[in-house]
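Checked the freezer inventory, then went back to the computational side. Two predictions to log before the end of the day. The first one is the construct we discussed on Monday; recording sequence and tokens without edits.
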Amino acid sequence: MTALPIVETQSGDVSIYIPTNVIISIKTFSD
């Protein structure tokens, strides 16, 4: 799952990558 956000970050979608990464982390800790 980490590889996909990294690819998006390289495309310049840093603003999308950061909140997405946080949401994934929250869901992971919730589980």
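The second is the one RB wanted added to the comparison set:
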Amino acid sequence: MLPLSCSFDFCYRSLFGKIKKLLVNWLSFSTLKSRYSFSKMRTVSKPRVAVVLVLLISVVLLFMLIVSTAVDYSEGRSMGSSQPVSKGGKSTLFGPHRKLLRRSLAVDEPDRIWGDKCTKADIVINQGATAPLPSGIPTYTVEIMNVCVTGCDISGIHFYCGWFSSARLINPKIFKRILYNDCLVNDGKPLVNGGTLSFQYANTFLYPLSVSSVVCS
């Protein structure tokens, strides 16, 4: 309390000092309160952060375990699907390789009518360009093969050959044109199983040759 009778200067200083003291006390109290609140909040938040981190790590590990198990399972299935299984001395191939095997067998063995020993597909024709004649006319080499899978000999082999002609002489006992689009192979005699005939002709272009008829011996 201020005295009732005091000078202006004394009263002013005393009042100012009390106000200053009150302000300092209030600021100190506010600072302590804020520090207490912060420390309390920090103390409370630490356990929460730890729990969240533990849960997050557990979820990540569980996800990695599930992914690893799924990959191992898929790899095991893919490896197991192509394994051959032995049955009575024969190997059976499962999975996608089985389709490839069927396709290759279909290519190797042509369609046959029941009881037929051979078909036109058992005669294979290969031809390609070779060195030209000194005159510059191109030459082509032809190979004719008997690939009959039943082991048969094939005779009476005729080709579709158009107006086949050659600037180089061909042995007529190997290949000759009889009529338009009809050429005879091996003079009509059997071409043994696995046998090959070859000849060379010279012309300005390659003749497309294909089998028209055969006779199974």
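For RB: The chain has two domains: 8-75, 117-216. Helices lie at 8-81, 96-108. Let me know if you want it refolded.
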